[in-house]
Amino acid sequence: MDAAEINYCPCCDAGLCPTDVKHFVWDILHKWEAHGVAFSEETWANYPENCELELFSCPNCGFGVFLPMLTGTDAFYIDVTRNEYYLADRWDFHVAIKLLRANGAGSVLDVGCGQGAFLARVKQSLPKVACSGNDANPAVRSCLPQGVPLYTSLGDVPDGLDAVTLFQVIEHVAEPAQMLADAVTKLRQGGMVIVSVPDHSGPIRFFSDSHTAIPPHHVTQWTPASLEALFSKFGLKIIARKREPLPDYLMPFYLHKIIANSLGCMGDPVREAQIREKLADPIIRFCQRFGIKSLPVKGHTYLVAGTR
User: In Å, how far from its chain's centre is CA 182?
Assistant: First the structure.
């Protein structure tokens, strides 16, 4: 997303509006360190100390972007992933495998594959599906399942694939629309693309200043409307829309906020504390006792699948 395009939404082409949400990048890095991440001198040197980032949003579809654009560097992600930051077992992986099976996919490319957690699950659940991964970091090659090729550039990936997946990746890059466009060119006619994003219309909006939801980690924000608008922009026929239910590991963070919002007392620390003690915590204990893994309310992720 270059300087000539930042005034317009890449999803629906509406004009972007400034907001009152602003952050200094070094304040964000200090938040990460307060949560146990130790940044190298190289990481600190990559980001100017007095650089202020402002959120611009689309009034039409809800897309958001922080400007100036500061994405995570290789050094940044080496630092933040050192303590196994990413989950290996995720809701969107299970949904995607069901879609691959239902659509009879014989080949799949995972864009931003990392250490290959999704591809490993495909190999286990759908052993006849030919898997490949794309990641800019060549070091992950040794982590992928045996026989799975790694492409460090999307341009090197052979065409004619049955499916391409992009899990929680487009919010990290400066050119999300271009990334999706490049991925779609690798599909055969009728092939399927599956994209998942953090849903900023869900409970994540209650933690909009969290260090994990803002640059350099996430440089754009997504809603169901913005993701579906991007699919429509590229002529993709949407075949599935899925919203993640609230998973058990996020209940301690989100549930009391969700209840407080529904009761109209969001932002009242006393009421929120009472709601946590009297409602949210007992519900969480009940779920733990009876092995309930999710609740039927908005969770973290929204997923869309479409065909070319």
Answer: 18
CB 213 within 8 A of CB 57: no
Query: What ranges do the domains of the chain cover?
Result: 91-198+230-243+302-307, 249-296
One-letter amino acid at 199 equals D
pLDDT at 200: 96
pLDDT digits (tens, 9 = 90+) for 191-240: 999 999 999 999 999 998 899 999 999 999 999 999 999 999 999 999 99
Helix ranges (H only) for 128-175 are none
| 167's tokens | 């899990």
Kind of pairing, strands 17-24 and 130-134? unpaired
Q: Looking at the domain 91-198+230-243+302-307, which fold is it? A: Rossmann fold (3.40.50)
The 10 Å Cβ neighbour count of residue 278 is 11
Task: Say if residue 48 is preceded by a cis peptide, omega within 30 of 0.
Answer: no
